[in-house]
Structures are given as C-alpha cells and as structure tokens.
Amino acid sequence: MESFDKVYGGLNIEQKTAVDTIYGPVLVIAGPGTGKTQLLSARVANILRQTDTSPSNILCLTFTENGAENMRERLASFIGAKAAYEVEISTYHGFGNSLLSQGRDFIDDERTSIDELQQFQIIQKIKQNLPSTNLLYPSKNTVKSILNVINDIKQENISPEIFEKIVKQNIKLIKKSEKYLKSLDALVGVKQSKNESGTKKSAKDQKIEAFFELYKNLKDADEARAQKNTPTFLEKIYTSFEEQSIKYDNDPKKSIQHFTRDWQNKYFSKNDSDEYKFSDEFASRKALDIAEVYYLYESELKLSTQQDFNDMILRAINLLEAKPDFKFSMQEKYQFILLDEYQDTNGAQSRIVELLTKNELLPDLIPNVLAVGDDDQAIMAFQGAKFSNMQDFANFYGDETKIINLTKNYRSHQKILDFAHNIADQIDGRLSNIFSNLDKQIYQENNSITDIEIWRKSFKHQSTEFNEVAEKINTLINSGVQPSDIAILAPKHSILEEIAKYLNHLDIPIDYEKSENILEEAPVQQVIEMLKLAQDISEGSYNQNAGWARVLSFDFWQLKPLDIYKEISKFNKWDESSPNLTDILVESENQEIKNIVELFIDISQKINDEKFETIIDYIVGSKQLQPIKKSPMREYYQAKSDEDFYNLALYMTILRGKFQSSNQDNYSKILTKDFLQMIQLYEESEIKILSKNPFSANNNSVKIMTAFSAKGLEFSHTFLVSVDDSAWGVSKGNSQTISLPKNLERIKDPNQEDTKKRLFFVAITRAKTHLYLTSSENSFDNKTRRPLKFLEENIEAGIVETIPEGFNEIRVENIKHPDLEILELNWNDKFSPEKLTNEQIFIEKIQNFVQSASSLTSFYDLQYGGPKKFFENYILKFPQEVSGSARFGTVMHEVFDFWQRQKNNNSQPTLEEIINEINKRIDKLKISEREKINEKTRAEIAFTNFYNQRRNIFKTPAKSEVKFRKIMLDNGILIDGNIDRIEINDEDKTIEIVDFKTGNISQKDIFKNKTKLHKYEIQLYFYKLLLNNSPEYAKYKVNTGRLEFIEGDERYKTPIIKSLNFNQESEDRVKQLIAALDKKLKAFDFKNIENLPNVTVSDLIKFENQIIDETQR
User: How many CB atoms lie within 10 A of CB 1109?
Assistant: First the structure.
C-alpha cells in the first residue's frame, strides 16, 4: 500500500491546500499536467484521516466507468480495498439511478430504461402524425435532428412546460416589439441631413442614433424572465448590445459603426418585402412546435412507464425537489462530495450537486464540496457539457467558495506550454476573463525536462504528409525511441484510418482502438444487401432490380465484371412494366450467374417462413439448401485470412445478440423482414451497432487516437496531423441540428470556435518534449485545405505567430511520394472506367452518347461523385433504387402536364380535381403504404399553396413536357431533353423557359451562392440551347427562364420563383462545359471523386474550369 505521507509530501503548496481544505466549497482549476489525479485520491484519504467520517459518507462523481474505476484503484492504494469500495464512486448517470433506487418508497411509478433506438422510434411515430402546419413536418427536419434537440433540452433540466413558456414569451415579445424596427426601415437609402440647429448629420451617424434608440426601446419593452436561468428574447439582444459596446470601446481599431453592423446582422434580418424583422422570429415559431413534440414524447414515456438516458438524472432531480425528507436524508448521508472533470457537466448534472449541498432549513450550513476542472479543456460541448458550470459553481456558493489555481506543470517543456497558452488565450469564454486575478498561464515545474523540439511542416498533398509522418516515426524508432512513447492525434477517425495505412506499410507497430460500427463493415453490408435482395424477390419489389448489380459484384462469387454487365444491361430500367431482372437473369446462358439467381430464388421462397437467423446461415453459407446450392461467402472469408474469418463470425454474433436483447419476448418469431426493418431504423437514426475491435500489434506500439481520447495522456513525441481548418476548425453546419432562438443557445454551445480551440489546446498539451504539426495544401479528394485560423500563420513571412520564437518557422516541403495503393474495393469499383476502357461495348456507348441537362450537371457535380457517378448512371445504366420522394418529383411533373393540357383544351381543373389526379398517380407507385400517405400529404400542401398563388400562370399560352431528340449544336455535339414548360409569345416571338422543382428553398438564396441553384442555372441554359438549335423554335428569342419551387419557403409555405435573364457569356460557358464533357467521354476519362460534403458554388466552378482547361490544352 502506498504511503499517504509520501504522496502528500510530494505535493506542491496549491495541491496541499486543496487536499487540506476539506470543509466548505472548493473550486480547483487544474490545468494540464498539474497533478489533478493524485489530488482527488489524496483528499479522500485525508478526509478519512482528519475526521471520523465513514467511507460511505463520501461521494465522488466522474464521467466514465473507466474514470470511476481508476479513481477507486488509486484510492485503494491509500486506504485499502475495503474502504475504497465503501466510498461511493460513480458516474453521474449511475448516481442518478442510485438515488432512484434509494428513494423508491417515494416514487409513484417504476420505469424501465429505453435505448437510443427506442427513443428514435417514439419520435418517428410522433413526427408521422404531425399536422402539415407543424414546422417540423418537412422532411429536412429529420427524426434524428428532433431527437437531438429534445435530448439537449433535457440535459439542461428544462421541462416541456418551461420550454413552452420561454418560447411563447419569445413570440409575444417579438410581436410587441416589431413596431420599433420601423426606425431601421426608415434608414434604408438615408442620406446626409441637418438637425434642428443646422448641424450636418451623416448617414452613418443617423444609423448609429437609430440603433441606440432601438436598444433603449427594446430594454423598456422587456418583462420578467419565464425561467430564472434563461434570459428573455429581448434581454439577450439588448445585453449583447451593452457587452459589445464595451468590447468595441476597448478596441479602438473597430469603430462603433462596425459594432452596430455586427449587432444588426446577428439579431435582425429582412423579409421578402425588404423590411427589418427579428431574425429569431422563425426559430421561435419552430421552437413552439418542438415544444409540442417534446410534450408528446414525455407523455408517451409516462404512459408506457419508460425512461430515457437523461431521465436517470432528471427523475432523480424531481425526486429531490418534490420530497424534501428524502433530500435531507441524502444530504445527511453524503457529507463530503468530490466532482471530477466539472467543466464537462451539463445543467442537469450540476443541478443534482446543488440539491445535495443546499439545505433550506439550515441556510447557514456550508457544504463540503470540491469541484475540479479546467475550462480550457472543456471539449465535450457536443454532449451538452457547459464549461460555464465552473463559473456557476463559484457563484452558487458565493463568497464561501475557495478558488485554487494549479499552474505548475510536471509534464511538458515551457515552450510547449507557451504555445498552448497562445491558443487558449484566444478563447472568449475563459475563466481568466471572468474571475479577477486569475492567471491561467501554466509553468514548467519539472526542471529535468530539457529536450525541446517543435516543428511545423506543410506539404503539397495529404499522401505526402502522411508518408513523411510515417517515415519520421520510423526514424525515431530506429534511433531508439520506444514506439509507445509516440502518438498521432487528429480530431477525426477518418484521418487516423488513412494514416494508419502508411504506418502499416512500413511495418510500424500501432495501437489504434476505435469503436467500429459493424453496419459499415464490408461483410455485414454484404449480408444485408443479400437479405434485402432475397426479401425483395419474395415480395416482387421493383428494388430487386437495383440489388443484383451490387450482389453479383461481391468477390466471393468470382464473376467477371463484363459478364455481370452484359446480363444486367438486358434490363430496361425505364419501363416498370417490363420483366424484372430476376426473371431475366434466371434464363441466363451464363451458368454461374444462373446458379446464383436460383439460390436466391430458393432462399426467397423460405424467407417468410423461417426465422432470420436461418436465412442468414443460408446467405453466409453456414447452411446449404441443396448440395449444389450453397453460398461461398463463409469459405471465401475462411480462405482469405484468419482475421477476416474471425471478423465475419464476430459480426454475425454481435448482430444476432443485438436483436436477441432488443426482442426478448418474440425473438423466435423474428423474420428477415423484421430484421431488415430494424436495420433500416439503425441506418435512418445513424445509431451505431458497436464492436470494440482494437488493432494493436503489441503493448509497445505507436498510439493512434483522436484528441478527445487522448485527454489525460502524455507522450514524448506527439504528432498533430491535418492541421488545417477543415479538420481542426469549425465545420460548416450540420444537417442534424435544429437552430433554437438565441436566448436558448445555452442549451447547445453556440461558440463552436472556442470548443475547437480547446480541443487543439488539449492536443498540444499531450506533448512532453517533441511536438510535430503537419498539414497539406490538398487533401486526398483534391480539395484545397485552408490554414487553421487560430494558429495565426503568417504565410508570407513563413512563421507561426502562436509558436514561440526559434521554433515557429513554417517548412514547406515539396517532396512527392506516390500514393499508397491500399484500396478497399466495393461493388462499383469492379465497374470503374479504368477496368473497362478497352471494352468495345462501352466504346460504342460513348460514341453514341447524347447529352442531356441532367447528365451534364451530373458529370460536374462534386457533391455526388462527379465523373465517376456519371459513368455509373449514364454509361453503365445499372438499375437504381427509387425512393418515394424521388418519384414524387415525377408525379408533380406529370400533374403539371395534365393541368396544362386541360387548360389548352379550354378546361380549367379545380384544386380538388388536381389533388385527385395526384393521389391516383401516387397510388400507382411501387412504394410502401406509409410512403404513399406521406407523399399525398406533401403533395396536397404543395399544390394547395401553388394553386392559390400561382394558378394564373396557366392563362399564358404555353406547352408542357416539350421533348427534344438529338438536337445538333454548331460544334456537332448532339443534345436532347425535356422542358417542363415553355411560355410562348407569338407577337414578339419570345419564349420563357419554366422548370418546376420540388423541395424547399429560401427567398434569400441566389444563383451565385447556392449549389443546387448553380446546377439549375446550367440546366436552364442547356434548355435554351435546345430551343435555339431546334428547327421548330429557332425563330424565337429565348431571353428569360425561371425556376418555380412549388414547395417554396419552409418558413412561410409559399412557392418561390427564381428568374434568370440569359446572357451570352454564361451561354458560351455552358457550351464549353458541353464540349469539355464530350472530350472527356471520348477520352474515356472519368475522375474517381467520392461524394464530398460542404461543397460550395466556388468549388463547383473551380472544378468546371479545371475540366474546361484540361480539354482545351
């Protein structure tokens, strides 16, 4: 057993103060490497030494089970295992459950816990039944995004009633205060004027006066908060004005004009009538609809006596608040409380602590509670954590709070600490900016650390960067550095997975543990694809046609790509009445393919009678139907390698176990269709089925991990890779989030940039003596990487401002290395253009190819695969699954055609007739009944609004669904296509093109800033070329085109029109795009580009220009 006296004697003055101050509230701010871990255990031991307190009267709360276990082990070394296990050491959620268990006599209803998937199912059911007027109804508000925001609200201990009260007050204050915005409307176009005394007043001065007047009016219009911890809607605006005023006064470089502009842009915007409004008006209305879903969700939990993960704490809070006797007994029991990593707590977790430490009957009683944390290391905001809880802790306990600041670092060299400080000093919400006299600079205490190396290198390409990192690590190991003392850190697993390949290539031992989502692993995806195919065959579903190309391409069938293509190309994907692909393939003259098809037909005949486990065995090849009918999958993986065969068995075991635990009551009755429905739920919800599959060569291996996982660890040689804005900086939005009004921003940390700086600070401070930062100008997907903003790199001077002098040079390396050929082939790689270049059948296809508007934009569409995807869809033409939503667009175009033809026959259909026509067409679609209901509702909303507001366009002479076939341009290239509608003016011989679109768009979006509008603009010019070059319409001028978004603006449910005046320069550019595509086709040149997130219009234009330049050389 470790001697307490020995450990205590090794503590510094500040650490000893924290250990010795066992009474009263104590806040310890513990920077990286300052010895926090020893401090907590020593304090518990000291409490037991200095008082007669029983170990069971001490409560220690931390965040993870591992953290709790580590604390117990360290404590056992001081006080013995028996006493250590009597101390209550728990996670916050575990402690919530403990309170519910201890207070079960006070609880009316026992509840069972549900997992995240069950939460998803509840929200999904609620969303399906929402009225179309609910702002969460549109499909862009995914079930996951709704669940995320409800979880965020619950983590802040806000009930549905309180949330609704706050939001209703928002809406009330908005309506009450809109009149004050008229003063801003009056300033549009304002010019210099004179006041009553004749003094000239500039437009700028008038605007500033107007903003100050608005500030005073909003402050006067405010009312009491709906909830103590949440500012009112107006309070958030005018206090921001006050805070920013002070900030700008302190910064003479920024004038008050800049301030008023920033404030205006943040809180106010203009509507379609060019009038000022509160920018949070829509967010508040949407939040009211969130409140409705939140109510329904909580009601369903109560009705079914269930609780989610958050309720483990929230129900404990309710119990403590509702039952004072129980609360007092818990306060009596837990006489000393220690809180680890307090910067990572959320509102509900901090409320538990408050309830355990404040006694209304004894207001003068001072609680014995210690919180340890570091706001600079608050990196868990994405889980609802609030670093401001540290400030709130000090405020809650007031003057009694003793603040202890640990600044002596025993881990790192001072130069590394200085670098880290320069990053942390840029964080806006730092405690040192709140508490006076708090110096957060960390100082080196370990004088034995003398080695120091910091270098910053930039490479031309990511492959070169990763290769150089691997070579450097290899050199270090060969020079005697232990692999386990080297770490590579990045913020994302996708980066680590790539660099791991480069280390493996050099036989460097690595330790890389990540929780794999087995649904993304190739063997599991193959099994799911084959199950879907067999189920689709059994149901006669159209989707079976799309499944065959993928399934036949799996390696274990050992089929030649060209053989697969020849058989599948016999199917006409445009004709749903034609025979399905299964019936075509079963007649194949290729015996290998014929045998596979017969196997799946046999499986499909059993799939609705035998349980899913048996069907999986047939699919994998663990069981065979007949001697000649057996899947080769199992034998293939067994022959491939022991690891691959082990993984296949492991994944199947995990899948079976997961569904057994989720369906204990009817597990024996689960059929394949039930299994696939559950898999679909996992995919839609993006919930992972995890397998801890560590890849570790041995104990002495290079550590590869995310910066999040590295917290608390230290390494002599630390590599931070991909140090650029896309990896370490703030990401561009998230489709799975719903924006809340700004006075509710505390629910989800709005300052992402501060969080990113904290993560980078954590990564830097893992390094003891050697820190290496690398980046590349171009990524694997050939996107340009921008410098990391808060690193403050002066590219011209070639230095990094934040790195101490002597180490701050940016070394630009121009070394070129060939990319590693480490490829994980998926099904469509078998049909890559490179493998099919010399096949005559494809040469003929390309020679006869006729471009359309959609094929042209598909080739240049970086967001969805670009040239590679073009090749799959327009050259291979494999069948594709068609969702109900995609077919919705087809139905809409058919109905517009019906409407126009009726009008051309002097018959104006009523809205009811149009809706009936839509419903008849949707009923004919081969989609699920649920999808039909959703699409009918969607269509009725869209067409009702469109009919009421845009039906007059059908008074204009027009033609609909105008078809053009093989129109030749002046450069000899053939194009064709269909135009939704052309409006013809025979008097002045002009035509306006109309293209109807589904989906939402904002009135603010313009052709220059919205990627889909950029693509639609190209299509409009393409249609112009069709008209200009067709004999029938050549005599007409085509000067204008417009897009009619029938579903319009999500906010106001109104159709949106985007008009375009054609110009010669843009038309010539589209001709260049057509010519460039023609040359790329003839050269069989299709770049392999994966789908890229966050593609901008400038990215698209850059890629288009690149293709044009390549073909004009």
Answer: 10
Partners of 994 in the β-ladder: 981, 1042
Q: Where are the domains of the chain?
A: 4-111+309-406, 114-190+199-303, 453-513+695-813, 518-692, 950-1112
Which residue carries 């253009």 as its tokens? 833
626 DSSP β-pair partners: 629
Q: Give domain 4-111+309-406's CATH number out of 3.20.20.70, 3.40.50.300, 2.30.30.100, 3.40.190.10.
A: 3.40.50.300
Q: Please enumerate, as own/partner, the contacts of 318-326 that have beta carbons within 8 Å and a separation of 24 or more.
A: 319/99, 319/100, 319/103, 319/106, 319/107, 320/99, 320/352, 320/355, 320/356, 321/355, 322/106, 323/103, 323/106, 324/360, 326/102, 326/103, 326/106
Do 30 and 339 touch, CB atoms closer than 8 A? no
Do domains 453-513+695-813 and 518-692 share one topology? The answer is no
Cα–Cα distance, 387 to 321 (Å, whole number) = 25
Q: How far is the C-alpha of 364 from the C-alpha of 382, rounded, in Å?
A: 37
Inter-residue contact 1077 to 1071 (CB < 8 Å): no
Q: Which amino acid is located at 953 in the chain? A: I
- Nearest of 1092, 1090, 1091, 1085 to residue 1110 by alpha carbon: 1085
pLDDT of res. 320: 95
Query: For residue range 36-94, what is the model confidence (pLDDT) as tens digits?
Result: 888 899 999 999 999 999 999 999 999 888 888 888 888 888 888 898 899 999 999 99
Q: Which residue has the tokens 């004038």?
A: 255
Please report the pLDDT score of residue 573 as a whole number: 54
Residue 1088 has pLDDT above 90, yes or no: no
Residue pair 184/215 in contact (Cβ under 8 Å)? The answer is no
Q: What is the pLDDT of residues 784-806, one digit of tens each?
A: 778 899 999 888 888 999 999 99
pLDDT of res. 624: 84
pTM of the model: 0.81
Note the pLDDT tens digit of each residue in 346-401: 899 999 999 999 988 888 889 999 999 999 999 887 777 777 889 999 999 998 99
Q: Which residues are registered as beta bridge partners of 373?
A: 29
Radius of gyration of the chain (CA): 33
Go through the chain and tell me how many residues it has: 1113
> Does the pLDDT value for residue 191 go beyond 60?
no
Superfamily grouping for domain 453-513+695-813: P-loop containing nucleotide triphosphate hydrolases (3.40.50.300)
- 826: pLDDT strictly greater than 50: no
Taking Cα atoms as reference points, which of 529, 536, 530 lies closest to residue 631?
530
What sign for the dihedral angle of Cα 659, 664, 667, 671?
Answer: negative
Cβ-Cβ contacts under 8 Å for 882 (sequence gap 6 or more): 542
Question: Can you count the helices (H) and strands (E) in the chain?
Answer: 42, 31
Q: Does 984 have pLDDT greater than 90?
A: yes
| Buried/exposed 503-525: b ≥16 CB within 10 Å, e otherwise | bbeeebbbbbebebebbebbbbb
Q: Which helix (H) or strand (E) element contains residue 295?
A: helix 281-303
Q: What's the fold here for domain 518-692?
A: PCRA; domain 4 (1.10.486)
The string of pLDDT tens digits covering residues 1023-1039 is 999 999 999 999 999 99
- What percentage of the chain exceeds 70 in pLDDT? 88
What is the predicted pLDDT for the residue at 706? 93
In whole angstroms, what separates CA 859 from the centre of its chain?
26
Q: Which fold is adopted by the domain 950-1112? A: Lambda Exonuclease; Chain A (3.90.320)
| CA proximity to 581, closest of 569, 592, 590, 591 | 569
**Of 261, 212, 258, 256, nearest to 238 (Cα)?**
212
3-state secondary structure of 1075: helix
Residue 462 has pLDDT above 90, yes or no: no
Query: For the chain, what is the mean pLDDT?
Result: 86
Question: 270-282 burial, b for 16+ CB within 10 Å, e for fewer?
Answer: eeeeeebbbbbbb
